[in-house]
Automatic annotation (TrEMBL):
<dbReference type="Pfam" id="PF01039">
    <property type="entry name" value="Carboxyl_trans"/>
</dbReference>
<dbReference type="InterPro" id="IPR011763">
    <property type="entry name" value="COA_CT_C"/>
</dbReference>
<dbReference type="InterPro" id="IPR051047">
    <property type="entry name" value="AccD/PCCB"/>
</dbReference>
<dbReference type="GO" id="GO:0004658">
    <property type="term" value="F:propionyl-CoA carboxylase activity"/>
</dbReference>
<protein>
    <submittedName>
        <fullName>Carboxyl transferase</fullName>
    </submittedName>
</protein>
<dbReference type="InterPro" id="IPR029045">
    <property type="entry name" value="ClpP/crotonase-like_dom_sf"/>
</dbReference>
<dbReference type="GO" id="GO:0009317">
    <property type="term" value="C:acetyl-CoA carboxylase complex"/>
</dbReference>
<feature type="region of interest" description="Disordered">
    <location>
        <begin position="259"/>
        <end position="279"/>
    </location>
</feature>
<dbReference type="GO" id="GO:0016740">
    <property type="term" value="F:transferase activity"/>
</dbReference>
<dbReference type="InterPro" id="IPR034733">
    <property type="entry name" value="AcCoA_carboxyl_beta"/>
</dbReference>
<dbReference type="InterPro" id="IPR011762">
    <property type="entry name" value="COA_CT_N"/>
</dbReference>
<keyword id="KW-0808">Transferase</keyword>
<feature type="domain" description="CoA carboxyltransferase N-terminal">
    <location>
        <begin position="14"/>
        <end position="270"/>
    </location>
</feature>
<feature type="compositionally biased region" description="Polar residues">
    <location>
        <begin position="259"/>
        <end position="269"/>
    </location>
</feature>
<feature type="domain" description="CoA carboxyltransferase C-terminal">
    <location>
        <begin position="274"/>
        <end position="523"/>
    </location>
</feature>
Length: 527
């Protein structure tokens, strides 16, 4: 028998090969077994492919390296070589725009990261950076694959390095859909946004068993690192939802507000909400009495297109609001004090929250609108010993370093250093406006009078009457609504009802703004 005849006999025809390929792809699509899929569903969790289908536009997913299998041996691994190696990678579209994604498949090795698994993630991250498109990770993995030893552990290093390389270049979104411990929790911490699902997702460096062994403390997985803990206490999670479906729908909404990369502007949309719509309701929403609280969310809702916005870190550091919305179809980032919580003061957590949000907006060409009603920084031993100076400086640094269009509006109180830090004109705001109810001053009139006129009040026959008279004089001289405008510290005092129109007109003017920072490798921001 000749070599040619041997070749002819050994090789099936092309249709046979295609049929073989289709069978393999069907096997990959089904996953390891129906039993494994049922177990995943029994935990209230979707499979990796079901999650990808919810995230991406229908039929748009293109898988990369679905045929990949590990080459590790030992501990029985050589007999278990499933396709995908426990992670599904590829790209698709969200609202028609390209998005890259990788999803841990908990049904295979518990989604644990091995060498081949890590290399697949490295490749898709490199592709996302090169293509200039967002990267979404659907996390449901058990950490490093212990059977592969340090080779698996080293895979995390490559992910962390790429997270850092992509930071500020493409949006990175981490969606936590299962327990993620140790190294699996660090990559999400390096990304721009973290989503979590209650009851089914957790993040911690060391689990409850290790905590108990080392400290003696007993705690559940959710109590240690559940969605509510990270959304309310630690600030690790930006968003928390009750189920995977609503979580992934909100990821899609967030992507609609972000540019594909740092070289593009966020997508604009047509809106039927008139740019010159009068906001008469604002006159009633914000009390003129500076001591009366109100909900700043209602103000934002009145200003933005169709009253729709996405609040970031809604339940952490609630004395400040950070949100993405649209004005005249253009995406804006909104930073606003919340008088309903701690009277809207700045403290350590609020400063950190707002600083990172300002940096995010600046990185991705999102104009920043700041709404001020701030009585100052929160006083107290805990705040001072906790480093309020250092943390407050983070917000100051972020604003001073931002080159995107920046507009601030003083609604009511703007006292002391907090006024300067909240994007005042003196630190580079492009336009600053104030309502007629504004009080821009070093401190409140009562405190100022007590300092300036301390001796005069103490020597008076009627100290309380004297104090009241001097407080009124101080307000009249230094705290009237036009004091700052007369000195050029605000560009104009505006009718609250015209705020939306003024903001939209100002943003249109600033759309072509160009600003250069000094030539440097990078700054050294306060930590």
């Amino acid at each position: 028998m000749t070599d040619e005849s041997l070749t002819t006999v050994a090789a099936p025809d092309a249709r046979g090969r295609v049929a073989e390929l289709r069978a393999i792809r069907e096997e990959i699509g089904r996953g390891p077994s129906e039993k494994a899929t049922a177990a995943q569903h029994a935990k209230g969790k979707l499979t990796a492919r079901e999650r990808i289908e919810l995230l991406l536009d229908e039929g748009s997913f293109q898988e990369v390296e679905g045929l990949r299998r590990h080459r590790a041996t030992g501990f029985g691994l050589e007999t278990k070589r499933p396709y995908t190696d426990g992670v599904i990678t590829g790209w698709g579209t969200v609202h028609g725009r390209t998005v890259f994604v990788y999803a841990h498949d908990f049904r295979i090795f518990g989604g644990a990261l091995g060498e081949a698994h890590a290399q697949k993630i490295h490749k898709i991250m490199d592709m996302a950076i090169a293509a200039g498109a967002p990267l979404v990770s659907l996390n449901d993995g058990a950490g490093a694959r212990i059977q592969e030893g340090v080779s698996a552990l080293a895979g995390y290093g490559g992910i962390f390095q790429r997270n850092t390389k992509a930071s500020g270049v493409i949006p990175q979104i981490s969606v936590m859909l299962g327990p993620c411990a140790g190294g699996a929790a660090y990559s999400p911490a390096l990304t721009d946004f973290v989503f979590m699902v209650r009851e089914t997702s957790q993040m911690f460096i060391t689990g409850p068993d290790v905590v108990k062994a080392v400290t003696g403390e007993e705690i559940t997985q959710n109590g240690l690192g559940g969605a509510d803990v990270h959304a309310e206490t630690s600030g690790v999670a930006h968003f928390a939802y009750d189920d995977e479906e609503s979580c992934l729908e909100e990821v899609r909404f967030l992507l609609s507000l972000l540019p594909s990369n740092n070289r593009e502007n966020p997508p604009t949309t047509e809106t039927e909400d008139p740019a010159d719509r009068s906001g008469d309701a604002l006159l009633d929403l914000v009390p003129a009495d500076g001591n009366r609280p109100y909900d700043m969310r209602a103000v934002i809702e009145e200003l933005v297109d169709d009253g729709e916005f996405l609040e970031v870190h809604e339940r952490w550091a609630t004395n400040i609001i950070c949100a993405l919305g649209r004005l005249g179809g253009q995406v804006v980032g909104i930073v606003a004090n919340q008088p309903q919580s701690l009277a809207g003061v700045l403290d350590i957590h609020a400063s950190e929250k707002a600083a990172r949000f300002v940096q995010l907006c600046d990185a991705f060409n999102i104009p920043i609108v700041t709404l001020l009603d701030v009585p100052g920084f929160l006083p107290g031993v805990d705040q001072e010993h906790g480093g309020i100076i250092r943390h407050g400086a983070k917000l100051l640094y972020a604003y001073c370093n931002a080159t995107v269009p920046r507009i601030s509006v003083v609604l009511r109180k703007a006292y002391g250093g907090a006024y300067i830090v909240m994007d005042s004109q003196t630190i580079g705001a492009d336009l600053t406006y104030a309502w007629p109810t504004n009080e821009i001053a070093v401190m409140g009139a009562e405190g100022a009078a007590n300092v300036i006129f301390r001796r005069q009040i103490a020597a008076a026959e009627d100290p309380e009457a004297t104090r009241a008279r001097l407080v009124k004089e101080y307000k009249t001289e230094l705290m009237h609504p036009y004091y700052a405008a007369e000195r050029g510290l605000v560009h104009d005092v505006i009718d609250p009802a015209e705020t939306r129109a003024v903001l939209i007109q100002s943003l249109a003017m600033l759309r072509t703004k160009h600003a250069d920072l000094p030539s440097r490798k990078h700054g050294n921001p306060p930590q």
